[in-house]
Design brief:
By secondary structure, the protein is mostly helical. Helices cover 85% and strands 0% of the residues.
Length: 376
């Protein structure tokens, strides 16, 4: 803790350069800095210190050196003036926006973590490990993907000037995120046991029952996470803050009701909490941008329809693979192939709507080349 406390300072020091790079959509520079600092910090410093017997301090020093190098590379890529001032233009509005953002992020963290906190507090270390492994197996890499997509969406949304653009882009994002995340995590839910066995081994198979439930919760969290940057870009952060605060109190009440009902009940309650939060965020987004309910339903339809088709096919495919050999690898392969085929069919069914959304973002020439390769 003493060593890693400096990471907070280094992350704060690098935040200005990082934010300027995000604003200008210079993600190549960001990921280059991330890759170089990670390889150096963990691959050189971390492994080197571990080799010489420094134990867990090798990981602490690796994280610290990675953060230090990352801050330096960010600043080299986007230098800015460094000074000290107690007064700044528009400081009042910036501070007020920042305070609301802090409250929103803290309550969002609380809503994403309260189920793990409850398990850690009320259950033993073995149950906590089972629940946490299932949660972190998918949630940690998901947050890496989602944070990148959110920063791009926020930068893009802050450049929009008309309400018509906001509505169209928001509806398009809701449609694409639902079409991608909902079937993907439904497939993960079906294949939770084979995936846990393949990645972690048979000693953690008990976590698959938790992952089966939480996977759908991750889909809801992902869809909600893709909508909130547009709320922030519109300056409506207080709207999400109120939603997160309401959910925080509701989460405490709901989890208190199932505290002694076991891990499955807690995971199911976490799924319920995430679904309610997604509905409130969708409702809040529709209110903020004056989006009619029919447009919201039309945006949700492709993803929901794809998932409804996928689930029975995936279940049947896994059952056939299990009867053939009983191997987890074959079951995972079966659900993966079915997901890809269903997604391709869904893409062609809703092709016009999807192309209308992605063509302005990716460019007509790029989309035409992509479609040409798919035809071949």
């Amino acid at each position: 803790m003493r060593v890693l406390s400096f990471v907070c300072f280094l992350n704060a020091a690098s935040s200005v350069s990082n934010s300027l790079l995000v604003r200008d959509l210079q993600y190549f520079a960001i990921h280059r800095a991330n890759l170089i600092s990670y390889v150096t910090g963990y691959g050189v410093v971390g492994i080197g210190l571990a080799h010489f017997g420094y134990g867990y301090f090798a990981l602490a020093c690796a994280w610290l050196s990675q953060s230090l190098l990352q801050a330096l590379l960010y600043y080299i890529a986007m230098p800015h003036r460094i000074g000290f001032s107690l007064r700044h233009e528009n400081s009042g509005s910036l501070i007020w926006f920042g305070l609301k953002a802090i409250v929103t992020n803290l309550t969002n963290w609380w809503n994403n973590s309260i189920d793990k906190l409850v398990v850690g507090r009320a259950y033993g270390s073995a149950d906590t490990g089972i629940y946490s492994v299932a949660y972190n197996l998918i949630f940690t890499p998901l947050m890496q993907l989602l944070s990148t997509l959110q920063s791009i969406a926020f930068s893009a949304s802050s450049k929009l000037t008309s309400d018509v653009d906001y509505r169209s882009v928001t509806i398009g994002t809701l449609m694409l995120s639902t079409l991608f995340f909902l079937p993907a995590f439904a497939s993960l839910s079906l294949a939770s046991e084979p995936i846990v066995f393949i990645i972690l081994g048979d000693k953690w198979v008990e976590s698959s029952a938790i992952l089966e439930i939480l996977s759908i919760s991750f889909a809801f969290i992902s869809i909600q996470g893709m909508l909130t940057p547009f709320i922030w870009g519109k300056g409506e952060v207080s709207r999400e803050m109120r939603i997160q605060i309401v959910i925080a109190f509701a989460a405490v009440a709901l989890l208190a009701m199932v505290l002694d009902q076991g891990l499955t009940a807690i995971a199911t309650t976490a799924l319920l909490i995430s679904s309610i939060r997604l509905l409130l965020v969708i409702f809040g987004t529709a209110r903020a941008f004056s989006i009619p309910a029919s447009s919201i339903l039309n945006a949700l339809f492709p993803g929901v329809a794809t998932t409804i088709v996928l689930v029975p096919l995936g279940f049947s495919g896994m059952a056939v693979a299990k009867n053939i050999s009983g191997g987890y690898v074959l079951q995972t392969l079966a659900i993966s192939v079915i997901y890809i085929l269903v997604f391709i069919v869904s893409f062609w069914v809703f092709k016009k709507r999807i192309l209308a959304i992605i063509t302005p973002l990716l460019g007509e020439a790029f989309v035409n080349r992509l479609l040409g390769r798919l035809h071949r």
